[in-house]
Design brief:
Elements: E1 2-4, E2 8-11, E3 17-26, E4 32-42, E5 47-50, E6 52-62, E7 65-76, E8 81-83, E9 95-112, E10 115-118, E11 125-127, E12 130-136
Length: 137
């Protein structure tokens, strides 16, 4: 079983940074929330895939009971990412499970021999809050 949010295309205020975002909750390979993300940098003509760092808050509930919550940080490679690692949890019996993300932002990154830093000239993107729900366990 799996329930997912709609994929959203989120843009920076200046429309030069884009982040696609989708979340799911399910029990394939164990109960987990899952994030799909891809970042893009605007060019004079068109868009190029780019690396980014995404951070925010998440919560996993069964009904009104919070099972797991906290902040998360994900480094997103050029080809995007689909990760469940930070969002694994233990089932609390059969019922409706909800995975939400909020306060999420994406920042394009530049990697250099001295480490990584935000890409100059590109604003961060605020990603719309997302919710995914499924009945499982």
């Amino acid at each position: 079983m799996e329930g997912c949010s709609h994929k959203t295309d989120n843009r920076s205020p200046d429309n030069w940074t884009s982040a696609e975002w989708k979340i799911c909750v399910g029990n394939y390979g164990g109960p987990h929330g899952e994030v799909e993300a891809q970042c893009w940098a605007g060019q004079t003509i068109g868009w190029n895939k780019d690396t980014c760092d995404i951070s925010g808050q998440f919560e996993i509930r069964k009904g009104q009971e919070v099972i797991k919550s906290g902040s998360f940080y994900i480094g997103v490679p050029l080809d995007g990412i689909n990760t469940a690692r930070p969002f694994r949890f233990t089932c609390q019996g059969h019922g409706e499970y909800t995975f939400t993300t909020s306060g999420v932002s994406a920042t394009l990154m530049v990697d250099s021999s001295g480490g990584s830093y935000p890409r100059p000239g590109y604003q961060s993107v605020n990603i719309a809050d997302a919710t995914a729900t499924v009945t499982m366990c």
